[in-house]
Amino acid sequence: xxxxxxxxxxxxxxxxxxxxxxAKDIFAYKRENGxxxxxxxxxxxxxxxxxxxxxxxxxxxxxxHNYEVIDHKQxxxxxxxxxxxxxxxKL
Length: 91
Fold this sequence. Notes:
Blueprint: H1 2-7, E1 15-18, E2 26-32, E3 36-43, E4 49-52, E5 61-65, E6 71-73, E7 76-79, E8 84-90
Antiparallel strand pairs: 1-2, 2-3, 3-8, 4-7, 5-8, 6-7
């Protein structure tokens, strides 16, 4: 994680906004610094959870992920139990 912080300024700089605030057991946010946008999405449940997205996670650079495959179908992301993902978009 320290290497990611050094490589990507957006992890520590820029605006911060919670996303999916009302989703139970989900901690998700995005950061943006004018050059990059970072999405961090975490499922703290032992059950899968599906979230709607306004972007295609497969089109973004995957910085960190604790599963090999991203489960994404037409504007929805299904997170496996305790799944965490960090995605980066260049602006």
